[in-house]
Amino acid sequence: MTSTEPTLSTQQVPGDRRRWFALAIVMAAAFMDLVDVTIVNIAIPSIQRDADASLSQIQWITAGYALAFAAGLITGGRLGDIHGRRRLFLVGIGGFTLASALCGFAANPEMLVASRLLQGGMAAMMVPQVLSIVHATFPAHERGKVFGLFGAVVGLGAVSGPLLGALLTEWNLFGLEWRPIFLINLPVGVVAFLLGRRYITESRAPKALKLDLVGVALVTLGLLMLLYPLTRGRELHWPLWGHLCMAGALVVFAALVAYERRKAARDGSPLIELSLFKVKSFAAGIAVQTVFGVALGIFFLVWTLYMQFGLGWSPLRAGLTGVPFSLAVSTAAGMSVQKLVPRFGRKVLQAGALVMATGVLLYIWEAHRYGLAIASWQMALPLVVMGAGMGLIVAPLTDAVLSEVPREHAGSASGLINTVQQMGNALGLGLVSVVFFGVIGDRLTRAQVGPAFVHAFQHALWWVAAVLGVIFLLMSALPKRPAQHVEGAADDEVPATERDPELVG
User: Which residues form the domain of 340?
Assistant: First the structure.
């Protein structure tokens, strides 16, 4: 999994207006993916009630998407390099639209989980092509403006997802309950597919490497063996096979390492470039990305369950409550990259971990003090503090992790960063059954539900705070002064797998 470059012979000339249509199309696709990640959480209680989904199925509706997305990201990027980014983008957005329809018309929770897995897999085909298409379409002197627009779209997606999900669920259009949160993708996807066929120029990597399907299979199998027992274990009273399955996952990951080492020696095209882990800052950064994904996976799901099940709030009220958090993330992210990191370096990321942990502790205190009577405005302070801390981390973290990575492995490294973050997110969602549902009793009266969810929320936040403490310690291995060299390494270079819009901005 080494860095490759797009074919520049297909690049459109600066005066060609078609490239701006192409930009609008791939931005719409990236926006659709970002919204779809965040829009589902706010509708989870409505899905649970309407579809009569179990707690483990609720977790898989979110974790399944993250798992399929993570498992397919690197392969999706590699397929685009080999067969053409335009072609894979169209396959991805067509499949994503179809999967969205299947989600919207799901007849039962099992169908919804399966459709979400398909949706995540199709997103893994679509998303890696977005930045590659931008690089292959725009000349170097225009990319600054383009990435500025892209960052704005990403920020808008992060803010609008929960609100859009809340509104669509609250309105209950045509009596469809939660289903419009998926069906809204259909007109956007169909239009983007049709326009994409006309306006996006094809590009390929001149020396694309082979697929490592065995590596993908081992990664997916290992994660399934770890996550499935975690999500089902509590409901099944932690059977022996579950413990054996989780232990077996470690064996599968060991086999993955051995296979990747042999494949690198044989043909130089492994899924994971193991030599990268000899770089101390990269190894620590991968750990930070993974653990940070775990923290976010836990927090966002239990936060939604706490507000809607525990406090009995409507989806709209819950969605509006999260607006200060989103705004704080966007504001702090912009400041960290432009002003703080160039001056203070690694200390900004460490401060972000401490600030976010402070917000979590403040939230625990307020949830305990006000109990079921807590108001949205009382949550604003901890959410703003948490959002500010998260913003200080997410924007500069990728550059910090890549600072000491050899330039020829930049694509491999950034693809791996994006993948492990999604894997961490899936693992965090799986752990919700332990740190949140494990604290809630199996048989609760109506009067006991609220206090039980409030208590479980506080318990889960202690775990999040502990994880942020671990992140702070791991960050000490990052370079003191991260060098932002990957994206601007050369005018027409693009790492083959540095294509996850969720990390752009």
Answer: 8-503
How far apart (Å, rounded) are the C-alpha atoms in residues 157 and 372? 31
CATH at residue 75: 1.20.1250.20
Residue 499 lies in a domain: yes
Decide: helix, strand or coil at residue 406.
Answer: coil
Question: What is the full per-residue pLDDT of the chain (505 aa) written as tens digits?
Answer: 433 333 444 444 444 678 888 888 988 888 888 888 778 888 888 898 888 888 888 889 988 898 898 888 888 888 888 888 899 999 999 999 999 999 999 999 999 999 999 999 999 999 888 878 887 788 777 766 776 677 667 667 767 788 888 888 888 888 888 999 999 999 999 999 999 998 888 888 777 677 888 988 998 899 889 888 988 888 888 899 999 999 999 999 999 999 999 988 887 778 888 888 888 888 998 999 999 999 999 999 999 999 999 999 999 999 899 989 988 988 888 888 778 888 888 899 999 999 999 999 999 999 999 999 999 999 999 999 999 999 899 878 877 887 788 776 766 777 788 888 888 988 998 899 889 988 887 666 777 888 999 999 999 999 999 999 999 999 998 888 765 444 434 444 444 434 444 443 3
Global pTM value: 0.84
Closest CA to 59 of 251, 256, 278, 235: 235
Residue found under tokens 């326009």:
195
Rounded to whole angstroms, how far apart are CA atoms 390 and 467? Answer: 13
Task: Retrieve residue 325's tokens.
Answer: 């958090």
**Buried-exposed string 394-406: b where 16+ CB fall within 10 A, e elsewhere:** bbbbbbbbbbbbe
C-alpha 68/C-alpha 502 separation (Å) is: 16
Q: Is residue 312 part of a domain?
A: yes
Task: Report CA 160 to chain centroid distance, whole Å.
Answer: 16
Question: Kindly report the CA angle at 109 between 108 and 113, in degrees rounded to 5?
Answer: 125
Cα dihedral sign, 183-187-189-193: positive
Closest CA to 305 of 454, 446, 191, 100: 454
Residue carrying the six token digits 């095209």: 269
The number of distinct structural domains making up the chain is 1
* Residue 442 forms part of a structural domain: yes
**Which DSSP string do the residues of 70-88 spell out, in sequence order?**
HHHHHHHHHHHHHH-HHHH
Is residue 3 in some structural domain? Answer: no
345 vs 264: CA distance, rounded Å: 34
